[in-house]
Queue: 2 jobs
Job 1
Amino acid sequence: MTQQGAIAKELSSSHGDRLIRVLIESKGFNPTTFPETEIERVVGIGEERSALLLRSGVEIPVAISYEQLEQKIYQPGFRNDGLVLDLRDVTGEAAKPKAANANEAPAEPKVGDTMPDGTVFAGISPDTNKPMYATPADATLTMTFRQAQEYAAKLDAHGHKDWHVPTKAELNVLFNNRAAIRAFDINGSNPADWYWSASPNGKWGAWCQRLSDGAQRNYAKLYHLSVRPVR
């Protein structure tokens, strides 16, 4: 790709007699023609969009890629309509950014996608049948069952305060999607690779799951295990 400094130099010595015809916004889109020497440089402004930056400071969006526009402007011997390069079909209305269709449903996130708020889409909760989101990492320390409940209830993270320890069924969803969700302790270390669920099993125990292999068991609530809050 030609460097912008070189582009400007080449421009001043190549097609200085050529005119550029575009549509420019001024109470609507109106055609205008100017000498090629008025172009200071070509810039990219996004995928399949570029712009002519004039020496006056005016920026004219163009609905083709940087490389395509560069070729049209600087390709030796290029001619369109004699000594006029006509860009009216790719400027004006055609070069306006495409607005999102308000009637289109937003794209469904995939498991493991990081959401705009920084949480991770973890799948569908079997308990609520609604989307479930996880923090991007475990709680820093292992903790007892009670401490895990208190930690999740007080957690204020990523703009949300409605976190909870996953239920037994929700924890199994995290296990099934662990590769996409990422950042679990699955190295076989004990007890860190065991994760608390919010589902008690009798007065003294609660269900937990080892995310390295999916094993489930009842642990005494006083054990210190890992926690991944969800909402």
Job 2
Amino acid sequence: MVGARARPPGGVAAADVAAVAAQLGRSPRGLRTVAHRCPCGLPDVVETAPRLPDGTPFPTLYYLTCPRATAAVSRLEAAGMMRELTSRLAAEPGLARAYAAANLDYLGRRDAAARAAGIEPLPPGTQSAGGMPGRVKCLHALVAHELAVPGVNPLGSDAAQAAGEWWLAGPCVATGWPAGAQDLGGAGGLLK
């Protein structure tokens, strides 16, 4: 198949693992799948296992990996967007309900990912991500959730829109892929 890339035993394409490692500056831990791709074709959100290979709980299911996206969201945090969104939660009951629903979605998906990986889900009451459901603590986690599951996280959607088009400058890391080669087939399995 033209443009296909080798997949390691865990199911995530080797080129995707390499791209994420280059984006993070380290090997990814607990990588399960690419949850979203930037318009340039590279991963920008990955799904991680709720427990790392050594059993350590890892509550962040969706992880923003693209350094340009991360920088854009960091600028929003520095400009006070977390405080503004938290204020909106207090003032807008409908938004608070939608954000609480996003939290339940996140927790359900994280538990399903644990079961799919054959590992113990995190205990009830374990934090979800980004401060959900009552505040905004990390825009990166909220944007990652919204990119992975469009239309679910209203505050992640607002932040993603405010972050702008981080991909316009082209790929954030060199991939070494042949021109036009792109694996659009999901991925799966826990890399150990």
